[in-house]
Amino acid sequence: MDPNDNPIGYAPDELDRQYNARASVPDCQPFLQEYADYSAQARREVAGDLGVPYGPHADETLDIFPAAGAVPVYLFIHGGYWRALSKDDSAFMAPAFVRQGATVVVVNYSLAPDASLPGIVDQCRRALAWVYRHIERYGGDPARIHVSGSSAGGHLAAMLLASGWQEQLNVPEHVIQSASPISGLFDLRPLVRTHINAWAHMDWQSARALSPVFHLPRVACPLLLAWGEHETDEFKRQSSMYAQAWAELDYPVQCLEVAGTNHFNILMQLRDAKSALSRSVFGLMGL
Predict the structure, then answer these.
(1) 10 Å Cβ neighbour count for 240?
(2) For residues 78 and 62, what is the distance between their CA atoms, to the nearest angstrom?
(3) C or N: which end of the chain has fewer Cβ atoms within 10 Å?
(4) Is the per-residue pLDDT at 9 higher than 80?
């Protein structure tokens, strides 16, 4: 065993509790239903190009909600611990962001355990490469791409920030201009000893290889790390640790704890253009 897989020394049952996002609220289902309901409402309110393929697999699709003109792009990656949810649950911010002047892109990817975590990371990178090459036809500016995501989607957004993959997909190393992982996971080693590994299928070596904190970019962009006031200590620590790693390289980073929110309903802040979370993201995007 790697002595660094559990650097904060929790007992096994407490470590599992710290990373059990669903158990951090009395009932997560109402929040998940909000994702689906408000996303369906967004698709009714905002004209979009739905199910646009970025790769050959049936799961490799995007929903694109264009704003007028050559505008910044907000690319969002859903959470669900890599095994749940989809783009269909993840367009709830589209009305507010399009009205603010951003083209919104929501990424779909294959789910664990049928898909491996490295495969999911690869899908998201190919989705970003597709957006960079094609988003102009949807009113997006490829020189102003902002990546975001929640929970596992925050992890995936941070893996897009890592260096070393861009040349293979023929995109510039600075393809991302700013980012806002929300309630993300940046060191996956502790998860190896939790129930999450039943579908993540990681060992110590692969967990480290999939941890954004060990793959910081060579080219920095402004970064916002956000989390809810009522999240577990470990989810808060994950973001604070990644922020510290960013700051140690003198990269621009800011942190935002959103008062009164938990791991799930923090995302509803994105539906309100005047919320602290939305305003912080708009600031990074120049909106």
Answers:
(1) 15
(2) 12
(3) N
(4) no
Pairwise CA distance, residues 274 & 271, whole Å: 9
Count other C-beta atoms under 10 Å from residue 277's C-beta.
Answer: 22
Residue 1 has pLDDT above 90, yes or no: no
Helix (H) or strand (E) holding 153: helix 152-161
Q: So what's the pLDDT on residue 219?
A: 87
DSSP assignments along 211-279, one per residue: -GGGS--SS---EEEEEETTS-HHHHHHHHHHHHHHHHTT--EEEEEETT--TTGGGGGGG-TTSHHHH
| Alpha carbon of residue 274 to chain centroid | 21
Instruction: For residue 241, give the amino acid letter.
Output: M
Q: Residue 71: its pLDDT value, please? A: 96
Topology (CATH) of 12-270: Rossmann fold (3.40.50)
Phi and psi based region of residue 76 (left: phi greater than 0; alpha: psi -120 to 50; beta: remaining): beta
* Per-residue pLDDT, 65: 98
The letter for the amino acid at 287 is L
Pairing of strands 253-258, 223-228: parallel
Lowest mean pLDDT among 19-28, 117-126, 165-174: 19-28
pLDDT at 195 > cutoff 50: yes
Q: What distance in Å separates the CA atoms of residue 255 and residue 10, rounded to the nearest whole number? A: 25
CA pair distance 62, 131, nearest whole angstrom: 9
